[in-house]
């Protein structure tokens, strides 16, 4: 009996494995979120590519590449499991936009510590990360992410000042931090405005669809009695006539 139960368990497990798909087929919204997650994950490849090029040209240390090989897969596996198991649905934003952006910013901060002369170039990666929030975040959320970005870069500068002061031009780092802060503030305002426009557009589209549905309903019902009018009955008769004709 125990052997049969064990065999049944293996069979059920095998069926579940066969039914498993990387992107769920029974939930379109979750499928779309996972697809967007894969697109965002592809941006990590760009980061790694730039970092490797900097390493080849002597502008970045090998520790950054090694760290990326550990951090990036770990972060993406955790995020994918969160999406695939539905844990993301417990968050206010099921797309986990801010969490994904902050994770990418943390990885970038790690790489920038070992970037040496290419640190200023990698600052552009922060802008690339913020682009992913344009369609989802409002100005306040953008500012939160911007503050997190500036804090992480500030931590980088503090650590560099403590451990590598002789190899770093701190005045340049301070200037880059200041320029980045101004760019992030402007980007947050513009990005939040774009997000607001998209939200208003969705609301307008929804209201338009409701208005069209109301007008259509008014056109086929009698205003006094609420029953279907002659126009609707004629349309139904014509539809049934065509259906029967096709059946013949």
Could you characterize what this model shows?
With 248 residues, the chain is mostly helical. The chain has one domain (2-194). The chain is built from 8 helices and no strands. It has helices at 2-19, 28-56, 62-84, 97-113, 119-131, 139-163, 170-220, 230-247. Helix 2 (28-56) runs antiparallel to helix 5, helix 4 (97-113) runs antiparallel to helix 5 (119-131) and helix 5 runs parallel beside helix 7 (170-220). The relative contact order is 0.07. The mean pLDDT is 81.
Fold topology:
Layout: H1 2-19, H2 28-56, H3 62-84, H4 97-113, H5 119-131, H6 139-163, H7 170-220, H8 230-247
Helix pairs in contact: 2-3, 2-4, 2-5, 3-4, 4-5, 4-6, 5-7, 6-7
The CA-CA distance between the termini, in Å, is: 59 Å
Parts with pLDDT < 50 across at least 5 consecutive residues:
none
Radius of gyration: 28 Å
> Approximately how much helix is present in the residues?
over 70%
Main beta sheet: strand number and arrangement? none
Assembly type: single chain
Mean pLDDT: 81
Q: How many E-type strands?
A: 0
Integer tally of domains? 1
Helix/strand order, N-terminal first: HHHHHHHH
Tally of helical runs: 8
**Content-based structural category:** mainly alpha
Rough outline: elongated
Determine the strand fraction and express it as a percent band. Answer: under 5%
Fill in the keyword field for this structure.
single chain, 8 helices, mainly alpha, 248 residues
